[in-house]
Amino acid sequence: MKQPFHHGSLKQALLDASGTLLDQHGPDGVTIRAIARKVGVSHAAPVNHYKDREALLTALATVLFKDLLASVKGKLSSKDLPTTARISVFAIMLFEYAMAHPNRYRLLWHTGLVNHNDPELLDVMDQFYNACCAEIAGAGLCSERDAETYAIALWSLVHGYTDLRLTGMFEAKNDKINGRPRLEAMLDMFLNQSRNKSP
Amino acid sequence: MKQPFHHGSLKQALLDASGTLLDQHGPDGVTIRAIARKVGVSHAAPVNHYKDREALLTALATVLFKDLLASVKGKLSSKDLPTTARISVFAIMLFEYAMAHPNRYRLLWHTGLVNHNDPELLDVMDQFYNACCAEIAGAGLCSERDAETYAIALWSLVHGYTDLRLTGMFEAKNDKINGRPRLEAMLDMFLNQSRNKSP
DNA sequence: TCTATTAAGTTGACGCTGTCAATATTGACA
DNA sequence: TGTCAATATTGACAGCGTCAACTTAATAGA
After folding, report:
1. Tens digit of pLDDT for each residue in B133-153?
2. Other CB atoms within 10 A of residue A90 CB
3. pTM of the prediction?
4. CA-CA distance, A131 to A136, in Å (whole number)?
């Protein structure tokens, strides 16, 4: 019963191995054959659990996104933070995740490898978006009418900076002020300016 | 003299074919062998002009980036616009370029295919960054000390929204307000808030 | 003008990839 | 025990990037 079939829980093992390969060798290193080798199974075994490489990487991206969302939500619910600080935490956690696990963050948005129309992935991304909107709405930084635009702007700002930075942008320049300090300065700008606005 | 060698100007022909393939089939469709077929040359001919696939795609990305920069600069110098409008033009042109040529925009930032440490590409990206900074500095929306942060924030905002949108984000939702109108609303927010700030 | 040199293009091979069809094995259930 | 379906293996195929060996062509020097 423990090992109901030949391998047992190959599906999960494939996901685990994929995650390791992703961290070590980047998205391009996560090949079906490499995964199979790592798990110690023949090169065609994975097809029984995932239709093709895209399906496997989409599943991996979904798991990673879920983890990220969970840890963000966890951190936000555990601490009792002022509303604008909550937004910063949200943004900074995203950025720090990407810096700690660049290849994971790259996979999440890799259109060539991941199917962003997959319902499961779409669902967790939607939850992420809603969490972002909730933070903005809760902060009361803008009119309710503008909340959605505001939330998208925040997400775009963080994702844009993160993505640019992962390509190496700004690295050659003032790298002591770039990175997280730069992000915090941008958030400061973004949030403080809003506070100066009358409701 | 016109055709100094077998093919003549194979190097340029390879670039042209790559551009067409990119538009039609996306970055993954731009394979060395497909390019060679399109030009009508053997599969190993390109190696005489580009060390490997990465070198070829990096050259293509450099050309595309140069074109984009030129058209942005052209538009900005031709019209006599108020300073904040100039920033919007800058941002909107970037976004519209990506919407008109999604695969080109994807290639520009595709870390797996393009070498973002290439000096030529680095140079044109630097020019782009400097142009962005110049617009911000010229607008006088913030203290000189904050200009760099402001410029990076603007670029991050536009790139982030563009990139998220290219993955299909926000498409299922209110798609009449998303896209360019949403970007304009975000820019409005971003710029107007700054104007309310005392100097 | 003839020849030597070198750049440019061809051919064929290698190992890698994803995917599929055919086959073998295993566990579960009747 | 015997059947069946799920699961894994094997082998094949086409496509890919890249390299080495070879052929062709254009230029440079005598």
Report:
1. 999 998 888 888 889 999 999
2. 22
3. 0.93
4. 9
Chain B interface residues (partner A, CB cutoff 8 A):
26-28, 106, 109, 111-112, 116-117, 122, 125, 129, 142, 146, 149-150, 152-153, 155-161, 163-164, 166-170, 172, 174, 182, 185-186, 189-190, 193-194, 196-197
Do B186 and A146 make contact, defined as CB atoms within 8 angstroms? no
Percent of chain B surpassing pLDDT 90: 76
DSSP letters of B98-128? HHH-HHHHHHHT-TTTS-TT-HHHHHHHHHH
What residue ranges do the domains of chain B occupy? Answer: 1-50, 54-195
Residue A148 with chain B: CB contacts under 8 Å: 174
Taking contacts as CB-CB distances below 8 angstroms, the residues of chain B near A190 are 153
What is the topology classification, in CATH, of domain B54-195?
Tetracycline Repressor; domain 2 (1.10.357)
pLDDT tens-digit map of B59-110: 999 999 999 999 999 999 887 888 889 999 999 999 999 999 999 999 999 9
Q: Which residues does chain A have with pLDDT short of 70?
A: 1-6, 174, 193-199
Judge whether residue A33 contacts strand C, using its CB and a 7 Å cut-off. Answer: yes
Q: What is the CATH number of domain A1-50?
A: 1.10.10
Collapse the DSSP code of B177 into the 3-class scheme (helix H, G, I; strand E, B; otherwise coil) and give the result: coil
Of B26, B167, B189, the CB nearest to A150: B189
Closest by Cα among A49, A52, A18, A12 to A34: A18
Cα distance from A6 to chain B (closest Cα, Å)? 36
According to the model, what pLDDT value does residue B45 have?
A: 96
Nearest CA in chain A to B119: A172
**Residue A129 has what pLDDT?**
94
The DSSP code for A173 is S
